[in-house]
């Protein structure tokens, strides 16, 4: 029998010591997720773990550099307006690779299935996954399937791992953000979270909201082709734009200031969030990116993104500053300022 884990040996602040079990907030991509990684996983892994805490790791491979990433998908429901767990599992991992500037090449696919899941439902998920891989130009090269007892899963969970190549001279990572850098987003935010919420809860907002799930590597390639020195790229998924900006600020030891009126939020998302008491800055996205670039490169990167089908609504929303290191501050439409904290969990769990 394994020894009982000594919780007191962890270097862990609240909430882990006060909660001896995993709660939904630990999977939300916010402060609780960060604490779980920092105070449980990293001490447990010790020197077996290496590298920055990014969505994909860039590793040497002879004369080349490869990016490697893995992600698991537990979205509920399996099918939602604009997508499904199948295409999400491809696009999410492709985008994690793209955020390091890599060209995605290969994916693995692993399915965890609950006993009793309908084969036609699994077939639709697998078809969507295959279609998304073809659309993204990646190959599915290996995989695995496991089945758990009825009542011990939730239909279908999917894990994908991906490998891509990083070109010489490309150095994109959160710690490269510098004071004076411009903060850009590639389009409307908050769409995926509201789309899943509307489907899950049977809500109607007068206008259909569809997920923005999409691969972004071509958009990244377009930005790189401008010759700009892209400092940071992030895809604001769990925890939304707020979580991504806080992660960048913390990693680089800088502050970030944004203007709320410059953040592109579609009316239907703003209305839905207003009705439900949610903040669009914390709503998940699955087809948008945040770019931090030197100020002299901002206009050409923005023009290039707007010329791409996935970036027509790209906007400059803020600036990296030396003040209030590790903190994100938003200027409201009334001229006041508010701190945009790292969310403790996720406004809506299981959105990816």
From TrEMBL:
Q: Which residues are in the PurM-like N-terminal domain? A: 55-166
Residue ranges occupied by any PurM-like C-terminal domain in the UniProt entry: 178-325
InterPro entries attached to this UniProt entry: HypE (IPR011854), PurM-like_C_dom (IPR010918), PurM-like_C_sf (IPR036676), PurM-like_N (IPR016188), PurM-like_N_sf (IPR036921)
Q: Which family does it belong to?
A: Belongs to the HypE family.
Q: What is this protein called?
A: Hydrogenase expression/formation protein HypE
What is the organism field in this record? Saccharopolyspora cebuensis
- Name of the gene encoding the protein in the UniProt record: hypE
């Amino acid at each position: 029998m394994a020894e009982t884990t000594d919780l007191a040996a962890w270097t862990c602040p609240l909430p882990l010591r006060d909660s001896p079990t995993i709660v939904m907030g630990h999977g939300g991509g916010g402060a609780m997720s960060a604490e779980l990684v920092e105070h449980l996983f990293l001490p447990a892994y010790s020197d077996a773990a290496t590298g920055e805490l990014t969505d994909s790791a860039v590793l040497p491979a002879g004369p080349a550099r490869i990016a490697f990433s893995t992600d698991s998908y537990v979205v509920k429901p399996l099918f939602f307006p604009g997508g499904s767990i199948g295409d999400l599992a491809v696009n999410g991992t492709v985008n994690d690779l793209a955020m390091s500037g890599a060209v995605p090449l290969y994916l693995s696919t692993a399915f965890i299935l609950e006993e009793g899941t309908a084969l036609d439902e699994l077939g639709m998920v697998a078809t969507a996954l295959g279609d998304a891989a073809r659309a993204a130009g990646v190959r599915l090269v290996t995989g695995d399937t496991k089945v758990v007892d009825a009542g011990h899963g939730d239909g279908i969970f999917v894990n994908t791992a991906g490998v891509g190549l990083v070109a010489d001279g490309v150095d994109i990572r959160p710690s490269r953000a510098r004071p004076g850098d411009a903060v850009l987003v590639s389009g409307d935010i908050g769409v995926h979270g509201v789309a899943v919420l509307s489907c899950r809860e049977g809500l109607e907002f007068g206008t259909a909201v569809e997920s923005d799930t999409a691969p972004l590597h071509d958009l990244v390639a377009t930005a790189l082709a401008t010759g700009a020195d892209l400092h940071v790229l992030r895809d604001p998924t769990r925890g939304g734009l707020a979580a991504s900006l806080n992660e960048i600020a913390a990693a680089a030891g800088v502050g970030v200031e944004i203007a709320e009126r410059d953040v592109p939020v579609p009316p239907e998302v703003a209305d839905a969030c207003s009705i439900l008491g949610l903040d669009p800055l914390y709503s998940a996205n699955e087809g948008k990116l945040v770019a931090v670039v030197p100020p002299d490169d901002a206009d050409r990167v923005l023009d290039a993104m707007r010329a791409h089908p996935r970036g027509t609504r790209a906007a400059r929303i803020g600036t990296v500053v030396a003040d209030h290191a590790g903190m994100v501050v938003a200027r409201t439409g009334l001229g006041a300022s508010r701190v945009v904290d790292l969310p403790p969990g996720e406004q809506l769990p299981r959105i990816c």
